[in-house]
Amino acid sequence: MDPLEGIYVALLSITSNKMRSGLTMLGVIIGVAAVVIMVAIGEGANLQVSAQIERLGSNLLVVMPGRIREPGVRTMGAFGSMDVLTMAEVEAIRDGCPSVLAVAPEISRNTTVRYGSSSMQTQIVATTPEYLPVRAFTVASGSFFTTEDVLLARKVAVVGQGVVDELLSGADPIGQEIKVGQVRVRVIGVMGAKGQSGMINVDDAVYIPITTAQKRILGTKYVRTIYVQARDAKSMDAADDEITSVLTARLGSTDAFTVRNQADILGAAQDVTRVFTLLLAGIASVSLLVGGIGVMNIMLVSVTERTREIGIRKAVGARTIDILLQFLVESVVLSLLGGAIGIIAGILGSRIAARVAGWPAAVSIGSVLLPFCFSLAVGLFFGIYPASRAGRLNPVEALRYE
Amino acid sequence: MRRWFRSRFTGPGSAVVRGDLSVIKVDGLKKTYRLGSIEVAALRGVSLRIGEGEFVAIMGPSGSGKTTFMNILGCLDQPTEGSYWLDGVLVSEMGDAQLARVRNQRIGFVFQTFNLLPRLDAVTNVEVPLIYRGVPKRTRRLLAVSALDTVGLRDRLHHKPAELSGGQQQRVAIARSLVTRPKIVLADEPTGNLDTKSGEEIMAIFQALNDSGITVVLVTHDADIAGHAKRIVRFRDGLIVADETLSVRTIAERDESLDGLIAELRAGASEGVKVEWTR
After folding, report:
1. CB pair distance less than 8 Å for B100 and A317
2. Does the beta-carbon distance from B100 to A1 stay under 8 Å?
3. pLDDT at position B30, please?
4. What ranges in A77-119 are assigned the alpha helix state H?
5. pTM, full prediction
6. In angstroms, rounded to a whole number, what is the distance separating the alpha carbons of residues A154 and B83?
7. Interface of chain A against chain B, CB under 8 Å?
8. What's CA B192's distance to the chain center, in Å?
9. Is B138 exposed, middle or buried (0-12, 13-18, 19+ CB in 10 A)?
10. Residue A2 to chain B, least CA–CA distance (Å)
11. Dist CA B184 CA B191 (whole Å)
């Protein structure tokens, strides 16, 4: 029989019992739509995390004290002393590493900041002026503190937009005096809004010269993190090697510090979201499997119901293979139709999910093709048994069937 | 894909051994059904020859094995023992796929319960055997329309079986059996579900077919219907108990249009619309 003919016969049989075909397809539709939506959400999360990490700055390396065993984000536990890196190491990296463009130390800590009678808990970020280019930050008004401010440990601060909104609203923040811990500092600038970056909301922070923090507020000579910007993407590995050798020479051991580049962090985060995506898709696949069992169930009922038709077709010359293909095409058409509708429903569903939950959902070609192929496979796999049962029916018995 | 199936299922065919001129030749045919541990012998050694152009009525009470015999003649079933030569070819040794091809190309089968596909209209029902023969859609439609024309249903092409009377449904079924231009038409109680008048009309068609040279074998338990045949074979308990040639037979009242049918089938045969063994 002509393949097109087979599809026509299958469509005829599918449309002759619309209610049942619809319900059968619903299983596949829900399964495919679930896979599309889940994969879209997973990939959306992946994109969002990647964007956040890229927002850290470009060509960025991060040096942290202690050895971090698992590749991952900063919050993971470190082993060894946290008091290792000082400003001397910052200078050493700047001077000893030709692939490095800029270096900025950072100490960040949660502190109470007061203005007049009001106060808030916020993060103070103690650093140097190079922090701006390294982290790709901008100043919205006023100015960032200068190298001179750092050298003289001046009591100045640049505040994030969130601090302005919560603590300094109403007045022009520039020139105001705020109290960071027990130290009065003068606001000289406001950072441009940037939103969430990594684990910190960068808008909700007060930036002060690192020397001011070390000497007047925290009483420490150590720095917690050193951000290093490589010259370009190609020199990332070279910069990594140079930093490692400079610091090993100074600190005596590679276990005293950890150098992470942005690609590592990105890779680790993407690993996490990939697992997350797989998990979601796996759960959704179960419903597709259940849909496939529905298809098989209906096809079995259909074979029994149409035993007589099979007998008639065989009597006029249909071979086993003709009958088998007829039913197989029917189950494949049924599940492919369900798959196509499911994909459309899935795309619409992920749009709605993205809008309602404010969660990004990225529908990729892969997340559409995969469930489509999967529904084809479901149609074939769950169709072959009923179809072969139909094909093997004995014509005499089939004709006698009431 | 099709090619593969074709080569797979066509095969070299069984050995073609030309016997005598019999269209149907069965020897020592036995059929035993197994119902649990009990064996039921439906046919207990039947031998029969039917020549080209014969019109045979097979009679017998229920359980005499006549339907089993017809199913074997129609290649719907295989005998447990014995041989069956159809047109000089040993079909009792054939596999499923080859039998399907024989059913499709050599035999037209008409059933008591018409056995039309309820969802298809008359003309599509008639097309079904041609679908399995791989005839292109356009040719198929032409052949089906002309087959319906010969049985007088030109104006009922797009009626579903449920919209037709019993006699009309049986005529659609006859058109379906004719559309492949078979040499033999087998009919199992074709008038069993019809009133006398419709039955006469159907018998007129069978007689017309027979007049055009087609061999007709008919199962019936109605003596009046059997009286339309040229020869009556009687079955009892799985054996042939009588075989007589009728000296006087009933000629059903024939519509003039049926003479057209004979003319057309003869013309068709002479034009070379032949049955081929392979698809």
Report:
1. yes
2. no
3. 94
4. 87-96
5. 0.71
6. 114
7. 1-2, 5, 12-13, 16, 308-309, 311-322, 394-396, 399
8. 16
9. exposed
10. 7
11. 18
Give the angle A93-A96-A98 at the CA atoms, nearest 5°: 100
Closest residue on chain B to A17 (Cα) = B119
Partnered with residue A113 across adjacent β-strands are A120, A180
Query: Is residue A126 a contact partner of residue A108, using CB atoms and an 8 Å limit?
Result: yes
State which amino acid sits at residue A179.
Answer: K
Tokens found for residue A272: 């996490």
Q: Which residue has the tokens 């037979």?
A: B249
Which chain A residues contact residue B11 at CB under 8 A? Answer: none
**Which among B77, B115, B132 has the least Cβ separation from residue A1?**
B132
- pLDDT tens string B17-74: 444 568 999 999 999 988 888 888 999 999 999 999 999 999 999 889 998 999 999 9
- Comparing CB atoms, the residue among B5, B105, B116 nearest residue A321 is B5
Residue A118 bridge partners (DSSP): A115
**pLDDT above 70: residue A356:** yes
Q: Mind listing the pLDDT tens digit for each residue in A215-228?
A: 888 888 888 889 99
Residue A81: CB atoms within 10 Å: 10
Question: CA-to-CA distance for A32 and A295, rounded, in angstroms?
Answer: 14
Cite the DSSP H helix spans in B180-255. 196-211, 223-226
Q: Which amino acid is at A58?
A: S
The answer, yes or no, to whether residue A163 has pLDDT greater than 90, is no
Record: contact B132-A312, CB cut-off 8 A: no
The amino acid at residue A137 is F
Tokens standing for A162? 């969130």
Q: What is d(CA A384, CA A331) in angstroms, rounded to the nearest whole number?
A: 9
* Subunit contact A317:B176, Cβ cutoff 8 A: no
Contact A312 B116 (CB under 8 A): yes
Give the tokens for residue B132.
């399995």
Residue entry with tokens 């000629």: B251
Exposed / middle / buried, residue B24 (Cβ in 10 Å: 0-12, 13-18, 19+):
buried
Distance CA B232, CA B183 (A): 20
Closest CA to B218 of B204, B203, B239, B208: B203
8 Å CB contact between A296 and A385: yes
Residue A132 host element (H or E): helix A131-135
Verify whether the Cβ–Cβ distance A316 to B104 is below 8 Å. Answer: yes
Q: Which of B221, B209, B111, B123 is nearest to B172 (CA)?
A: B123
Structure-block tokens of residue B150: 């010969």
3-class DSSP state of A289: helix
Measured between alpha carbons, how far is A152 from A155 in angstroms, rounded to an integer?
A: 9
Question: Chain A partners of B176 at a C-beta cutoff of 8 Å?
Answer: 316
Closest-CA distance, A355 to chain B, in angstroms, reads 46
8 Å CB contact of B115 and A322: no
- CB-based contact A396 B115, cutoff 8 Å: no
| Residue B169: C-alpha distances to residues A132, A185, A250, B258 (Å) | 90, 102, 101, 17
pLDDT higher than threshold 90 for residue A366 = no
Residue of A nearest to B177 (CA): A316
